[in-house]
Structure formats: C-alpha cells, structure tokens
Write a structure and sequence with these properties.
Blueprint (H helix, E strand, L loop, with lengths): L1 E2 L13 E4 L23 H8 L3 H8 L7 H13 L6 H8 L4 E7 L11 H16 L3 E7 L5 H8 L4 E5 L4 H13 L4 E4 L9 E5 L1 H14 L5 E4 L7 H16 L9 E2 L5 H13 L6 E4 L2 H13 L9 E6 L12 E4 L2 H16 L7 E3 L2 E3 L7
C-alpha cells in the first residue's frame, strides 16, 4: 500500500518526498468473527485485561517495542488477533500529539548514473522500511541537498516525529546543521562516525577496527607497501577512521606508513580512477591498496588495469561497503561489509527511544571482511 506524494515542484529532480505506509505487523481480518456488534469495538484495555498486563504494555507490544518480552508480546498479539483488534492511528496520534511517522533524509552524493544516491544506503533502506513496518510506523523518504534548509523543514511542519539521517558529505557543513537540530529539540538519529564528541544519537560501523582488519589482511598476504585512497581528515571522519586503522595495523607489525601513498578521494568511481592514476604517476612502488569505499576501489581497478597491472598479483586491492557491484568487478572485489540489516533496525529503535525520552548511547557495529579475488588468487 504505497502512495507517492510530491511536495511542491523540486528545484532538483533528485529532490522529492514520498510516503511509505507501513503495514501493521499483525495480520488482522476486517470482519468480526466473534459475534461482536460493530459498535462494541475491542480496546487495548480489553486486551490488557485478558493478557493480565497493563494497557501501556499492550501499546508497547503492538508497536514492536523490544522492552516487552517476546513471550508477552506473542500473547498480546494472539489476543489482538482473536478480538479482531486494530490500532486506531488517528486516535493514538491525537492522544500522544505524534504523527506516528518517521522521516528518512538521504543526502545527495555524486554518482555516475546521476541517481545521486550512494548505493550503500540503498542496501540500508530496505531494513529501515521493514523495521518501521514492524513497529507500526509510517516512513517519509526524502532526498535532500546538504546546503538546503532540511534541518528546520520537518520540525516546523510537524510532518514527522523524528529524523533518520543517511549520508552527509563534508562533515564541517553537516555539523552546524546537527547543532541546530539539537538546539531546536528535534529528535534525530544519524548514521556516521561514532566518537566521544558525537552530536545527537549516532549509529555507525567500527571504521577504525575495519581499517585495521583491511591492513592486517593485506599484511598477511605479504604486502608491505600499502596505499590508501580516501579523504582522510576531519571533513570525512569515517574515511579518517579507516585510514587510522590501516596505519595502526602497519604500526603493530613494526612498519611505518608512507604518507606519499595516501591521496584524497571522494566516494565515486571517477575519483578512484583519478587518484589511482595520480598514485601511479608518482612512481612510488606499492603492492597493496585500501580504498575508503567500494566505488573508489572500482575506479582504482580500472586505472590499474589500464596501466598493465595485474590484480592481485601486482597489487592487492581492498574496498569498503560491499555494494552489490563489488562481487562482479574484474576481478571481484575484496571488501569490508557493514551490517546494514542490524543498522536499519538500530536506527529506528534509537530514534523511537529519543522520541520516548529514553535516549540510548551510541551504537558501533563491527564490519566483516569479505575476501574475493582482488586479494586472493
């Protein structure tokens, strides 16, 4: 049951908003089969009485709140089905002054196909929408440009109870927006670098640990002259953490990183191609390459092939993200896979906790090394 709703005429074709009406997690028939009169609708208090629990527990269970035990939730769901009970979202919204809607904001990233969407976030989108459905929530999905006034739009319109933020580009621009969200009391959770100076609720990967894993893998193959392609500074903290992890792996092995083997690159294939060619032009020997993203790595593979290098014989290459095309490159790309399934659920649960004034600490998810032919013959 999907309805697309455009909000005005966007300046950029990539900017539009549509609503996903999440189906309630219970499969509830519309016709009463217990002989009840239409006027005698069951209520959450009826369910609470039959289940031997409080009415707030029923409400939490029916929206998928994990604070309710699995056995209690199953009991409540069974009674709700037997009573043909359905949640009146309008009444619930009026009582709580909530829209029962979350907004997912995806920020533009340059891409070769002009979709302006980082393919990594497309993988996470599915888990977010499924978990919203399980919690009985609607989801607004909106594509935004970082420089626009997205940080005030949803707060002022009351269209959503909170925001899920994916992607950000230059963190120095993003940071000021996050600070304004905090000042105006907007509930939000973001995917990104997890650190002690986090602004707002954050869920992210262990980028440092993943970078170290990439370095250890290349070292285990006998590669000692390892390059890094990715913007490794405060403007792109996730890339910076991956770079630091690589350097730490070399340090632990008693080796030093050659700074001449690092080049700044944004998350596009063209950037990977460009910077790999620059690295080759420097004439500094290297036998391993760690890219800050799969898109960068894919561009680097093309540059290496054009220069006559054989991967992995001459240069072993590792990417990051495990996007869908990583397994069909030539050769297939070894990469670090982020936990998109659990990430989506954690983003939703963390935002719900913010809305209910029970904030959670930052979550850090481990990455998994996926070994393919770009590092292993």
């Amino acid at each position: 049951m999907h309805q697309r709703r455009f909000a005005g005429k966007p300046e950029n074709p990539a900017q539009y908003t549509f609503r996903l009406h999440a189906e309630h997690m219970l499969d509830i028939p519309r016709e009463h089969d217990m002989g009840r009169k239409a006027s005698a609708k069951p209520t959450s208090f009826d369910i609470a009485y039959l289940a031997g629990v409080s009415q707030p527990t029923v409400s939490r269970a029916l929206r998928g709140d994990k604070s309710v035990s699995a056995s209690t939730r199953a009991k409540i769901e069974q009674i709700a089905r037997e009573l043909n009970y359905t949640v009146d979202k309008n009444a619930s919204s009026l009582r709580s002054q909530r829209s029962n809607t979350l907004a997912l904001l995806l920020f533009e990233d340059p891409t070769p196909d002009e979709s302006m969407i980082n393919p990594f976030f497309l993988a996470m989108l599915g888990s977010i929408t499924r978990h919203c459905a399980a919690c009985g929530l609607d989801l607004l999905i909106s594509f935004q440009r970082m420089e626009d006034d997205w940080h005030v739009r949803y707060q002022d319109s009351h269209r959503a109870d909170g925001l899920i933020l994916l992607g950000y580009g230059d963190y120095s621009v993003y940071e000021s927006r996050l600070e304004q969200l905090v000042r105006q009391g907007t509930h939000f959770v973001r995917w990104g670098s997890v650190g002690e100076d986090n602004i707002g609720a954050t869920v992210g990967s262990d980028n440092f640990g993943a970078g170290r894993m990439a370095g250890e893998h290349l070292l285990s193959l006998g590669r000692t002259k390892i390059g890094f392609l990715g913007q490794a500074d405060e403007h792109y903290p996730e890339f910076a953490d991956r770079y630091r992890g690589l350097r730490d792996a070399l340090k632990q092995a008693g080796m030093a990183f050659d700074d001449r083997l690092q080049l700044d690159a944004l998350t596009t294939e063209e950037e990977g191609y460009r910077t790999a060619k620059l690295l080759l032009a420097r004439g500094i020997a290297f036998d391993g390459l760690f890219a800050g993203s799969d898109l960068i790595a894919i561009g680097a593979l093309r540059a290496l092939a054009e220069a006559g290098f054989i991967v992995p014989d001459d240069v072993a290459v590792v990417g990051f993200d495990d996007i869908s095309t990583a397994s069909v490159t030539t050769p297939p790309l070894t990469t670090l896979m982020q936990d998109t399934k659990n990430a989506g659920a954690l983003l939703v649960d963390t935002l719900i906790a913010q809305i209910e004034n029970t904030p959670r600490p930052p979550w850090t998810l481990p990455a998994q090394l996926i070994v393919r032919a770009s590092t292993s013959a």
